[in-house]
């Protein structure tokens, strides 16, 4: 399906050959490789994903991750890649452009050609191993067996005997377990053997690898998830070795400068720190500093667009004028540190972000069609990021763990050239799961509340991307209006970040319209199609948002957080020119954005112009008085002055806590649901819910009931009774179930014309009019079963058609059914479930007659009372039964008390706290009035479809309500 105006497809591509688990078993048997080894290798390469034959960013293919890379083709692609920006991020428009060395292609060798080698071993074309899961698995098994034979080891049934072959699998057949490259991969494979794994792939294949701790224990694998950090590393963390001016290499005998978790076998290969000319100001590739955790707020994720060895060489060339703190190798996830974290690496293209971040580069080539990253990169990177976040106090969220594509341009002229790595195919959901900062599902979008973009990175969500095959991606497109054009001059190019909200980013809900959600983005309402799986509400307590101070029509947005001029003068440091300069963006009155921190940061600037610290006041951190909030402004972060904005609490979830109601209505285009929280004064906006079975019924009616943490809905459509539930913890609706089937309430001989519900304890009673008779079925939720339909008319001795316009409620274990009789009078039937008896009587005799046409009844029980409301000639009348006193009150005119000026066609009622909540339909709109019994007053009628309430929907024909 393609949603109207929403450029993504939800239908999955053709499924692979069925039985992926069976294919592993067959290949393992054919090539005498333990099935568990084959499964574990594949899991660590791809998590058993085929990626529909597309390559990873390092040339891996299909479920076994076999490689096929042409370095010459990579070099040709790099020649047309985007130009480098000034990664120092100074944002100096007068600076002379410098030719920057291009990314180096991967170094050729066997590790780049395991697919061709495997294809030769099984005598199949390489294309088959790229595109067919069975041939990929057969090729991987054959390649493993070949490595075992080359090591002169038997094809043992013992998985522990295959450690060396697994090492060689990773490095393309180099010498076995003594090879440094590949050991980390093998250790992870045997770690997976130890714990086992179960997962369903994006193509619906369910695979299981049983845990085998014995095999892991008997292998040479190192348990990299436990143990103490080596002493040299611990010492380095406490006091990193200081560089001598002019070099990044540690002095002979100095402590190992590696800053890395013990579960990663990291090394240190220094980035260049050298002059490029006689000028001491002309040097690369980072700034010597003395940062502590208080200066580090972000971790920035990059990809190299070059091979590991070539990228390392590039960073060791001082003319590159770029560096990162870490570089990761794809084949085995190996981590190389290049710059000590106390120093400022030049990686982000924004000096503010460089000063306050750690940069992590991931090996990746400019390959045509590349659409995924190796599992080794994800796992090593996530382990490193979690370590850095713990060490420096970086929050585990996507406002602090960001991509290079989310770094703002420091000044307007820099914006266009900012990078977009790691790109649209980096799986932020999986990465944050590994880091431990995944999004927690929440319920109920609230206008002004926070929302997190969270599309599934699976075949269930495949945005249309120019010049790219249909595949999972990590963003949503944004539109000027529901179903309208992309915002700005946006395109469907993967590199165009201007019209995309990326997974994990947090925004403020600006509006809701059906299945379209708007967020404040780039100074406007930006809409995305949202079926409930694309974003999650963030309604945790204590959340805040930013908005312009009262009286300001708009405030400036900045790409960096520099101090004021006076701060530079006080520090004896020349100020950059320009200094505090706004971008061509604004944050207008009424708009709200998510701050990355609730405490503003002071504007700062690290002055380090020379390689040897020879300038006056060189290596000085300038701190000013102006303060900034970092915010999620568009796809990228930005900064606003703390003097221009107010930090205000975000509205919280309408579904939880306090007095609240849920509405269900039928509109001209389908069913909608919304909620109101009277205690908090907020509304959940109307949104579409799943349709019932069969063709749309314009006369469809609903009834609603709160029971525990779920909302139960029952509807009549086309003569059948359906039920569905809404989980109020997740906000999600179930599908509709036809009650007239075996296993539920069972078939009926005549169509249903009316329905009402009531609850006694854990039992929901469904009462219908079918063939003119009253019938009841009950769902016992504690026992998990339905009773079959019973004939209430038969129990009460009622003739066919005796009651219509029915409404039910319950006081404890006594259910009351009210209805209009064939004699035009109101009658009631009561069921006492404790005693197992029914009663029947004429209510009109107790409350008096109604003059006019009665078009509807509604009832609600409160304590020992039942409030009965009747819709008479479009006006509301009320009578109350006090069962403790044994009497009824006469009819009262609610319409007069509420100042009703329009005629109502439908009526629904519920009770919360001390208030009766009335909802009526008039002119296709849903109105609400409230009677406060504690204060003895009624409110007037309010339009629930106004922008400040539940928002606009199509014309309404009926409404149901439940409260708690």
From TrEMBL:
Query: Region (Disordered): which ranges?
Result: 74-111, 196-254
Task: Show the PANTHER family listed in the entry.
Answer: N-ACETYLMURAMOYL-L-ALANINE AMIDASE AMID
Which Enzyme Commission number(s) are listed?
Answer: 3.5.1.28
* Top-level taxonomy: Bacteria, Bacillati, Actinomycetota, Actinomycetes, Kitasatosporales
Q: What positions does the domain N-acetylmuramoyl-L-alanine amidase occupy?
A: 286-423
Q: Which organism is it from?
A: Kitasatospora misakiensis
Q: Which UniProt keywords apply?
A: Cell wall biogenesis/degradation, Hydrolase
Q: Where is the composition biased (Polar residues)?
A: 196-205
Superkingdom per UniProt: Bacteria
State a single Gene Ontology molecular function.
N-acetylmuramoyl-L-alanine amidase activity
- Sequence ranges of Low complexity compositional bias: 207-220, 229-254
Supply the name of the protein. Answer: N-acetylmuramoyl-L-alanine amidase
Reaction(s) catalyzed by this protein? Hydrolyzes the link between N-acetylmuramoyl residues and L-amino acid residues in certain cell-wall glycopeptides
């Amino acid at each position: 399906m393609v949603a109207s105006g929403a450029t993504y497809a939800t239908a999955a591509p053709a499924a692979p050959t069925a039985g992926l688990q069976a294919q592993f078993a067959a290949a393992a048997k054919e090539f005498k490789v333990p099935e568990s080894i084959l499964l574990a290798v594949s899991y660590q390469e791809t998590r058993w994903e085929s990626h529909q034959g597309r390559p990873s960013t390092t040339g891996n293919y299909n479920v076994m991750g076999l490689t096929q890379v042409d370095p010459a083709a990579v070099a040709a692609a790099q020649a047309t890649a985007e130009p480098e920006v000034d990664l120092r991020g100074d944002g100096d428009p007068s600076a002379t452009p410098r030719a920057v060395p291009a990314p180096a292609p991967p170094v050729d060798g066997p590790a780049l050609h395991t697919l061709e080698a495997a294809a030769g071993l099984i005598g199949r074309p390489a294309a088959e191993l790229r595109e067919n899961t069975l041939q990929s698995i057969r090729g991987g098994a054959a390649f493993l067996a070949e490595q075992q034979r080359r090591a002169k080891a038997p094809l043992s049934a013992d998985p522990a005997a295959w450690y060396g072959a697994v090492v060689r699998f990773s490095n393309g057949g180099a010498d076995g377990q003594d090879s440094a490259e590949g050991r980390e991969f093998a250790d992870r494979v045997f770690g997976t053997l130890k714990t086992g794994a179960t997962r369903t792939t994006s193509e619906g294949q369910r695979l299981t690898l049983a845990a085998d701790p014995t095999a892991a224990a008997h292998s040479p694998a190192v348990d990299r998830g436990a143990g103490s950090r080596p002493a040299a590393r611990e010492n380095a963390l406490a006091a990193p070795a200081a560089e001598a001016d002019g070099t990044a290499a540690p002095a002979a005998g100095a402590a190992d400068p590696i800053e890395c978790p013990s579960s990663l076998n990291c090394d240190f290969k220094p980035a260049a720190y050298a002059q490029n000319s006689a000028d001491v100001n002309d040097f690369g590739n980072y700034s010597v500093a003395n940062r502590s955790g208080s200066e580090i707020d972000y971790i920035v994720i990059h990809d190299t667009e070059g091979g590991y060895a070539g990228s390392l060489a590039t960073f060791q060339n001082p003319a590159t004028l770029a560096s990162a703190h870490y570089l990761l190798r794809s084949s085995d996830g190996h981590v190389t540190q290049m710059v000590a974290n106390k120093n400022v690496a030049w990686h982000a293209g924004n000096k503010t972000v460089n000063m306050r971040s750690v940069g992590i580069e991931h090996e990746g080539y400019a390959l045509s069609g590349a659409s995924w990253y190796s599992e080794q990169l994800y796992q090593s990177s996530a382990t490193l990021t979690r370590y850095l976040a713990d060490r420096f106090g970086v929050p585990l969220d996507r406002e602090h763990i960001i991509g290079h594509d989310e770094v703002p341009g420091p000044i307007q002229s820099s914006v266009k050239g900012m990078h977009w790595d790691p790109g649209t195919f980096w799986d932020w959901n999986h990465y944050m799961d590994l880091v431990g900062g995944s999004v927690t599902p929440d319920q109920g979008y609230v206008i002004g509340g926070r929302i997190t973009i969270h599309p599934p990175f699976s075949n269930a969500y495949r945005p249309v991307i120019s010049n790219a095959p249909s595949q999972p991606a990590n963003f949503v497109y944004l539109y000027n209006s529901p179903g309208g054009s992309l915002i700005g001059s946006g395109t469907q190019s993967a590199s165009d970040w201007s019209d995309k909200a990326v997974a994990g980013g947090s925004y403020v809900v600006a509006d809701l319209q059906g299945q379209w959600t708007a967020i404040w983005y780039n100074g406007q309402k930006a809409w995305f199609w949202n079926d409930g799986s694309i974003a999650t509400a963030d309604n945790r307590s204590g959340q805040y948002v930013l908005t312009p101070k009262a009286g300001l029509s708009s405030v400036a947005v900045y790409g960096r957080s520099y101090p004021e001029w006076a701060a530079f003068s006080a520090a004896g440091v020349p100020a950059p020119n320009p200094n505090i300069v706004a971008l061509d963006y604004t944050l207008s009155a009424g708009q709200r954005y998510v701050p990355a921190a609730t405490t503003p940061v002071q504007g700062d600037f690290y002055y380090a112009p020379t390689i040897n610290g020879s300038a006056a006041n060189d290596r000085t951190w300038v701190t000013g008085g102006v303060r900034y909030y970092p915010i999620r402004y568009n796809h990228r972060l930005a900064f606003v002055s703390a003097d221009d904005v107010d930090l205000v609490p975000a509205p919280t979830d309408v579904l939880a806590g306090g007095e609240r109601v849920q509405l269900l209505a039928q509109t001209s285009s389908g069913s909608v649901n919304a909620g109101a929280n009277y205690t908090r004064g907020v509304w959940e906006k109307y949104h579409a819910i799943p349709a019932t079975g069969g063709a749309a019924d314009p006369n469809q009616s609903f009834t609603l009931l709160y029971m525990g943490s779920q909302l139960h809905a029952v509807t009549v459509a086309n003569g059948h009774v359906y039920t569905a539930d809404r989980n109020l913890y997740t906000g999600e609706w179930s599908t509709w179930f036809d009650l007239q089937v075996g296993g539920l309430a069972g078939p009926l001989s005549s169509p249903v014309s009316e329905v009402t519900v009531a609850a006694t304890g854990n039992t929901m009673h469904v009462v219908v009019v079918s063939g003119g008779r009253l019938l009841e079925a009950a769902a016992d939720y504690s026992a998990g079963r339905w009773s079959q339909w019973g004939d209430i008319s038969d129990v009460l001795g009622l003739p066919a058609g005796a009651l219509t316009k029915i409404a039910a409620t319950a006081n404890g274990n006594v259910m009351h059914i009210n209805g209009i009789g064939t004699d035009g009078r109101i009658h009631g039937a009561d069921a006492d479930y404790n005693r197992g008896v029914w009663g029947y009587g004429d209510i009109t005799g107790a409350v008096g007659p109604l003059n006019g046409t009665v078009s509807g009844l509604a009832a609600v029980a409160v304590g020992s009372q039942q409030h009965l409301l009747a819709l008479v000639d479009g006006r509301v009348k009320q009578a109350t039964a006090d069962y403790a006193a044994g009497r009824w009150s006469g009819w009262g005119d609610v319409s007069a008390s509420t100042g009703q000026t329009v005629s109502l066609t439908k009526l629904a009622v519920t009770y919360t706290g001390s208030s009766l909540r009335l909802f009526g339909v008039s002119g296709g709109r849903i109105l609400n009035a409230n009677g406060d019994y504690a204060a003895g007053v009624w409110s007037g009628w309010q339009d629930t479809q106004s922008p400040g309430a539940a928002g606009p929907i199509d014309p309404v024909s009926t409404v149901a309500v439940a409260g708690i």
